[in-house]
Amino acid sequence: MTVELYKCLSCGAGLENDIQDCLCGKLAFTPEQIGHLKHEINNPLTVIRLKLELAQRDVNRYHMGNTDRGHKNLIDALEQVDRIKKFLEDL
After folding, report:
1. Contacts of 12 (CB under 8 A, 6+ apart)
2. What one-character DSSP code corresponds to residue 26?
3. For 57-89, how does the pLDDT look when each residue is reduced to its tens digit (9 = 90+)?
């Protein structure tokens, strides 16, 4: 499954809709396979989100470095995690 997904994505299916079409059409994944894929992506995303939230808390608490820049970078990263999670929910 991973090899087929890589082939599909490396052939130009880089946009979210193209990825969804790739997962549901060209590769003909079963709902069970898509569920497994979603699970395997969601688990590390949950850890990433937690670590980003902890880093954001530390930046806010200890005013580490350039707080505005660090805070914005953390918010941007959290938004991207949420974007991926939303995409997975819509599959």
Report:
1. 18
2. I
3. 887 777 665 567 777 888 889 999 999 999 888
